## 1
Amino acid sequence: MKHKALLSLFAVLMICSAAVAKSPIVTKIISYNIRTLARDGNNSWQYRKHATKNMLDKHKPDAFGLQEAKMAHLQYIDSACPQYARVGVGRDDGKTGGEIMAIYYNKERYDLIKSGTFWLSETPEKVSRGWDAACYRTTTWVQLRDKESRQKFFYFNTHLDHKGAEAQANSIKLILEQIKKIAGKKAPVILTGDFNITPESSKFTPLNEQMKSARTTATITDHKGTYNAYGKIEKAPIIDFIFYRGKNVNCLKFHTLDGDYGAPYISDHYPIEATFYIK
């Protein structure tokens, strides 16, 4: 009798565990080209860094990916926003040198299961420059697990080369290959980044065949330009994107964050935000 009772209890616990594992979540992701530490006059980092904190405090993303980040950016965010933990290494040396494709996640909500970085090149496993690229380029990725629901998903963050056309095309193909290798074929995946190409480019064809654009599929969306160049160009092009895949992943909202965060420009790019329902 006691044995049967224990078996029944075990069965109930297994059912409850399975139910928790399948609980849906809503997660908000931001992609943000923070602009490197260039001498930009009144738009230099020292005059706009508070706007980054204001933006994060206002929108409260569950995770966000940066492009063009240097250690000074990351040290400021680490101090100003301690609720987030980060991963990512420097593209120039695999440590802290050069651009860091940092991913931050809310450590109060998510557990980090695993993470990594690969280079956009013919040898992605080591520090290297690919094809006709002008710079070393990387993709950082994480697998996160919601502490309450136990729901898991992968998040990849990247920055394609700004000059090499061959590098841009091949980098997209490589990222898709790496997503399959790292995340498999079915797991929920979110991909963000500055792609340095506009939506009509044929280079996006492989990506559009395998993933969905948050901008074009969200229930609530906009199609505003993202590269503002600190107001020096008349019409801002769209070069920043959020993509996703997964049978049970839907994009609820997409928003270009061009509001006032306490500085004339938060960066020479507007951050973009997408809210996902994952079940």
## 2
Amino acid sequence: MMKKKWLPKLKFFGKWTIIVLLAFILIWPLTIGIYWSLYKGYTAIDATRFPWFRSKIHSVLDQIKPESGEAKKGIALSAAITNRLEEEMASTFGWSANDLIVFPTRWLDNRANRQRGVIFATRMLINFYSTNLAKYGKADAENASLKEAREKHFAFSEDSWWFPSTESEYRKGLELVREYEDDLAAGKAIYNMRSDDMYNMLTFIIGNQFLDQPLGLLVQPNDEVPYTQLDDRIYSTQGIILVLRDFVRTFVTLYPEIKQKGGEENVRIAFRDMEQICTFDPLIVLRGKHDSVTADHRGKMARYLISLRERINDLTQSIRR
């Protein structure tokens, strides 16, 4: 009698246990599927991967070749420095790193951190260009337009929404860089790339002021980095390399002796690593500790950056010899 009494209850319990287990098994794929669909919809209106062929620097390099005059090469390198900043300003949601918390775009932190990386690299390269390449010697005065652009406008905070806005300051900086390029084309400004400038420039790129900054954030031990900061560091690095890729590709294209001295294999691998970084966009950023079965996306980005840094270092040493 007891068995007959409990049998319906056991069947009911077993039925709901199976339903709950099936729901648990299916909810993760369903959730990931919904997230994937939403994310793909977002990427259709706002790019998250940036292969080299999409860079507007292609049009510059179609017009300016290694046999072009030094002034034209200077214009191309100057344009390569600012190109990514211009593309971010003209992107679907514009400059979102300074959006207020009430704006939906404020929550797009991947693009905001990418933009922080972009302005960091733009500042670094325009500073070097202005203080080393836009004059004949160390004791010469800087070009007035470049000096104002780098000290006043590009140095402005990346997250100011108003009074003045970040966008307005960066646009003024870009206008001043264009003024320098116009003066250079008219023979009223200076561009002077010497062999020691090439060496110093590449040394600067791989040094502690430039690439060592993102590398330090990528190789810091996992247990010292909050989970919420993992994607910040990845996408900030991507922004830095987006600027650097335009610049280095332009430099190597216009000065083919760099490839001849440093070896085509070094250049090929450097370009490959930059491409890996610029197209890096995991659906979900994971931290994968030690022998975990999950990916360590920050570690992957670090490996690409270390390899890139070593290849640029090899190019640097080849120029010195």
## 3
Amino acid sequence: MSEPQPATAQDYAARIARVLAWMQARLHEPMPLITLAEVAGFSPFHFHRIFRGMVGESVQQHVRRLRLERAAGLLKTTERSVLDIALETGYESHEAFTRAFRRQFSCSPTSFRETMRGTASPSPSNFSPMTYSTDELQVELRRLPSRMLLCLRHVGPYDQVGSTWERLCDWAGPRDLIGADTEMIGASYDDPDVTPADKLRYDACLTVPAGTVGEGEIFVRDFPGGMFATMLHEGPYQELGATYAKLYGGWLPQSGYVAADPPCVEFYLNEPETTEPEDLLTQVCIPLKTS
């Protein structure tokens, strides 16, 4: 086995602290994901998941909260108009700002100003990485072998992949391509916290014998295998994000490894049609660089 890449928990924390400081100083500017990833020194694909896992909120949530907290400070300490403050904090209209502010503080900007004037303004807190217990980080390193996969691409929300699986299985079943040893694998290429829901890419995959040929939208490709960090997710598929957060924000920074290019893969270990959601088992696997 190759030696892991030289990355430490302190290194990850320093990179996240660097990008947090960069964001704090530029709250009035656009923040493209690729720019944030460059500042942090991570690949754009993995940056957001590492950020969310270590900070405890998505980039979008973090920026929105900081901008609204900045707006709250301006409302308390200045006489500037609500519209002026809204524009400075990245909102294009009084109405959009008021809706966002009400969601955050449960009152309108005007009511907040009247109630809070004269009180101390909050100062930005220092970054402290999220902590995870040992029980939460039961991760195994596995070298997955190559496999031949029969695939059908889904583009859209991840929670709507069921119909794609049905189409794939309806095609494969009559051709005797589903048996006791067939593995069901999902390959996800995009982070749902970053990519619009209607643009998310996902391949529903079945392991098949060499020589299998697809048809139309159903295609065959080789899964090259390699070194993966794997973690067992127990429960509904809708809660897989929490397991990804533990892997990216808890285990990866202290592992010494660096995540490789996508996709991440999920092995579905029991049948969703006959299993209660809380009993579903999914092996989540993120690819690792080993050289």
## 4
Amino acid sequence: MKQTAEAAQVLGSTLEYAWFGDRATPHPLVLLHDSLGSVGTWKDFPERLAAATGHAVLAYSREGFGGSSKLSRARWRGYMHHEAETVLPAFLDAVGVKSPILFGHSDGATIALVAAGAHPGLTPGIVIEAPHVFVEPITLAGIDAAREVYRTTNLREKLTRYHPDPDAVFAAWTETWTAPYFKDWNVEEYVPRVRCPVLMIQGLQDEYGSAAQIEAIKAGRVDREVLMLDRCAHSPHRDRPEAVLKAAAEFVRRIA
């Protein structure tokens, strides 16, 4: 059951968050959204995840998204590093959460991976959907296609339901990822530092990334599970929710 939306003061910004399920359970799952996401864009998935795992779920909107503060500075090459290494631990401390299981999607998956690598004791395990550890041609082609969709369809109207300034949110994603300074962006250095179990979920029809991302993260480690899903694009929890919930519940039971 969703509890009242709340706000936390974190490093000078206000971040919105919401609990789902019994927040007293150990190892709550913390949801890290994608580049156009927020608390609201998860829709009913947090409640379903809490029911499937028996653990509380905590979703929050990063700065610049949803009901959180506007971006305090322009996006830069290291914005996901900053979110993972500095903002996420500060947010968890502000809301009193210890030893959470991180569940990230797209940008959020990268943030979860970097956080686990930068802070080995932060989490007992991470679930990452459609993670990025380097920039691929398919990513840039997908962003070009998304720009056309934004220009010609009602995508902007849909984003208005979740963000007060959808144009800023969309531009922050597309302009950063296609900028010349971002073309050699890479977080593979964090991969061998991740000591906790990892569940990776990838759609076979992902329009923004290939299985090469998953192969890079596996990196010879034993405790890294992979779930490749057919009939699934960039958002497995939307395209194949039952499969994702089942895999996540089994993973959480094993590690927690």
